[in-house]
């Protein structure tokens, strides 16, 4: 019998549970419905057990003749929101009519997973959260503000038996250290842990980014003749704290331009609304959330792509995007 994989998540995210904020339901996103859920939803609509909050039963599901077999329809939308989302004050504890009538398991996969961003590898599954979700964003400033940022395993809200669908690297090669040079899994996991520790221990997110740049630059020069890579990882992060010559950050406007260029033209906003200044605590946790459970580490650039994904998050925060707009761009709109 295959045992469930351990679930790892940042301590600041471990208490997450849905509070029905509705950002995912009111962003005019097309939400695909899997074939089995579509059958359940249509049956419940036919019997009257399920009713849309907006419109009528005929407009509750949009099916297209050329839709893929696995997701043959999308949830209906009206006034930029899912028709099953109830905005009325009386529905505060059960705004989603599908969830209220049929239960969590009958929701489409996108609804069941949001705001979870999951990455599977040979060790288990690592979960970070999209802070476009207002509830997830609120956790970045949650008390106690001086707690140690750690990685916790199998917290109550994220059990090993849960459903976590995302990037699957369980049978993939380890990430790239640099072109034509792979890391090993243990060294990557140590690098990830130490990066989280950097953001957790530093009062200054900019200083933590400086140390991360230094550690990555050091690691990229490693060769097998230098000894075990995992020893170099530990040394690189330890010595980055005392590095005398800081590495200049990438040009912020260029980084932000690259983020916008990665968004398909039909989804690309002209700019982002400047938010209130993000607290240092929230910034540190936000950057840790982009260092942890990363999909970027599995891209072609490997370790360099991972660093640039964190640089992008830092550049958006520095420019005043705020954590919600930042993750809307980075986690939902960018390709």
Any overview of this molecule?
It is a single chain. With 335 residues, the chain is of the alpha+beta class. It folds into three domains: 7-18 and 113-167, no CATH class; 32-107, no CATH class; 174-333, no CATH class. The protein is 37% helix and 11% strand. It contains eleven helices and twelve strands. The strands form four sheets. Strands 9-1-8-7-10 form a five-stranded mixed beta sheet, with helices on one face. Strands 2-4-3 form a three-stranded antiparallel beta sheet. A hairpin with a 2-residue loop joins strand 5 (77-78) and strand 6 (81-82). Helix 5 (185-201) runs antiparallel to helix 6 (205-219) and helix 9 runs antiparallel to helix 10. The longest helix has 17 residues, at 185-201. The chain is globular. The two termini are 37 Å apart. 38% of the residues are buried. The mean pLDDT is 92.
Secondary-structure content class: alpha+beta
Q: What fraction of the residues are assigned to beta strands by DSSP? A: 5-15%
Major sheet size, sense and barrel closure: 5 strands, mixed
Strand order of the largest sheet: 9-1-8-7-10
The number of distinct structural domains comes to: 3
The global form is: globular
Order of helices and strands: EEHEEEEHHEEHEEEEHHHHHHH
Pick out the low-confidence regions.
none
Summarize model confidence as the mean pLDDT. 92
Number of helices: 11
Distance between the termini: 37 Å
The total of beta strands comes to: 12
Fraction of residues in helix: 25-40%
Q: What is the alpha-carbon Rg in Å?
A: 21 Å
